[in-house]
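User: Sequence recovery, please. Input:
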């Protein structure tokens, strides 16, 4: 993990945010390479789940919504983790993480605080910072960030930063019904930031104060929920394995009854085998019944339902919710891609996800004929894909740098190019080189990308 964090910093993927002021725990900045990776993840997700599906409608809702939304959804009161604080060194930690970290293979999320306290005492779980055993009793800690709007009196201006994107889909259900007239089953999707006042150490970008979600609320008839659930499980698996992640580092885990949210009758997580502490939540799939629409109907006074022409009745649709973290996806991709031998380090990222699909080098930077030919090649392929340019140092160093950022193909323009219009293409994973005609290069790369 340390090597991945160091590479991410050295090569412009991910930096400690506001480092010149000492940083801020659990906040990170994505550099140019990390930004490209995130963008590729989002774009491909959108194409897979929204672009190519006529039954899914994409929206963007605001981060700050009417605070009544969060009171109605229960987040303002109940979106909390149980926290304990060490009385000696004041380290605060999530009680469930303390217990699960020490006693492997147990899940205690959702247990009452008294039971968490018992487990901590029975197993004499000491503070990870100072090794003392002197905890406060566990207490609930709300995860929503609050803020204030305008200059109206404090109490009236209180607002929240959204803790999930999902509520945006529920409260705009009627607007989508009225404007798009969708037929069941259909979904509303969104990609956007969510904010949580997380109290546990983050494990790099795994758990941060702000992060991005890609979520779908899929509205269905109640009697079809099991079939729809299974179908979404398949789609989620197709997506995640399609990112080039080995299947034996992925698994489904079903939530226990204690863990289930009060509105859900089934939730399963896709877990990835991260290099810190093993399998951890990557994505979730929840059957939320009609809880959200029914609840918002009651609390807003606006009927959120659906007229079923087949049955000539009104019904409140049920919901299947697949949810995906953009940042946990990026972290998984970096972890799965990291390779090293005694010669070099390389990121074996799926080519379409890599920050650059190709790099173009003139063999020598002080030979104008090579540089201008290389610029032609750059312009020719640059309209189809992201292409890096490097003319510094020797070719070996340039290969090394591109390997470390996962660029699948490096293209060198040399003196033979000037004679016969061919270039060398060097492959990141095999380091094999091939001579390819410039006229064939576009289709050569396209074929490999597909
Ligand atoms: P955890 O149990 O790890 O706190 P969660 O079950 O609370 O996660 P959800 O509410 O299901 O998470 O959020 C959906 C997705 O959003 C998660 O599967 C994860 O990919 C992502 N996510 C949640 N919290 C964070 C966070 N603090 N930082 C980064 N990603 C997050």
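Assistant: Recovered sequence (450 residues):
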């Amino acid at each position: 993990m340390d090597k991945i964090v160091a590479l991410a910093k050295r090569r412009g993927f991910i930096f400690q945010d506001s480092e010149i002021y000492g940083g801020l725990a659990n906040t990170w900045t994505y550099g140019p390479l990390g930004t490209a990776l995130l963008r590729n993840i989002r774009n491909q997700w959108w194409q897979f789940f929204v672009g190519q599906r006529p039954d899914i409608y994409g929206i963007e809702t605001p981060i700050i919504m009417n605070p009544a939304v969060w009171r109605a959804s229960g987040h303002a009161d109940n979106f909390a983790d149980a926290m304990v604080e060490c009385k000696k060194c004041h380290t605060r930690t999530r009680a469930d993480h303390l217990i699960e970290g020490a006693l492997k293979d147990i899940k205690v999320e959702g247990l009452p605080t008294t039971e968490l306290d018992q487990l901590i005492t029975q197993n004499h779980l000491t503070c990870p910072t100072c090794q003392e055993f002197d905890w406060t009793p566990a207490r609930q800690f709300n995860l929503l960030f609050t803020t204030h709007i305008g200059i109206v009196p404090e109490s009236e201006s209180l607002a929240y930063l959204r803790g999930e994107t999902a509520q945006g889909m529920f409260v705009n259900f009627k607007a989508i019904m009225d404007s798009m007239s969708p037929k069941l089953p259909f979904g509303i999707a969104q990609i956007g930031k969510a904010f949580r006042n997380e109290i546990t150490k983050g494990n790099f970008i795994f758990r941060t104060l702000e992060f991005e979600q890609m979520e779908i609320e899929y509205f269905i008839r109640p009697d079809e929920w099991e079939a729809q659930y299974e179908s979404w499980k398949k789609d989620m698996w197709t997506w995640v394995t399609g990112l080039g992640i080995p299947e034996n580092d992925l698994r489904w885990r079903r939530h226990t009854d204690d863990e289930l949210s009060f509105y859900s009758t089934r939730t399963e997580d896709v877990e990835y085998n991260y290099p810190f502490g093993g399998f951890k939540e990557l994505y979730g799939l929840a059957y939320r019944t009609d809880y959200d629409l029914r609840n918002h109907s009651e609390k807003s006074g606006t009927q959120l339902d659906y007229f079923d022409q087949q049955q000539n009745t009104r019904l409140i649709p049920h919901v299947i919710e697949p949810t995906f973290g953009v940042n946990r996806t990026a972290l998984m991709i970096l972890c799965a891609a990291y390779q090293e031998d005694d010669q070099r380090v390389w990121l074996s990222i799926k080519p379409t996800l890599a920050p650059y699909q190709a790099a173009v080098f003139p063999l020598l930077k002080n030979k104008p004929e090579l540089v201008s030919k290389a610029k032609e090649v750059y312009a020719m392929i640059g309209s189809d894909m992201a292409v890096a340019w490097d003319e510094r140092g020797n070719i070996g160093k340039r290969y090394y740098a591109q390997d470390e950022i996962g660029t699948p193909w490096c293209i060198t323009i040399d003196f033979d190019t000037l004679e016969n219009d061919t270039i060398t293409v060097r492959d990141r994973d095999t380091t094999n080189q091939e001579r390819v005609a410039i006229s064939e290069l576009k289709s050569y790369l396209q074929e490999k990308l597909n």
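Residues 185 and 220 are 5 Å apart (CA to CA).
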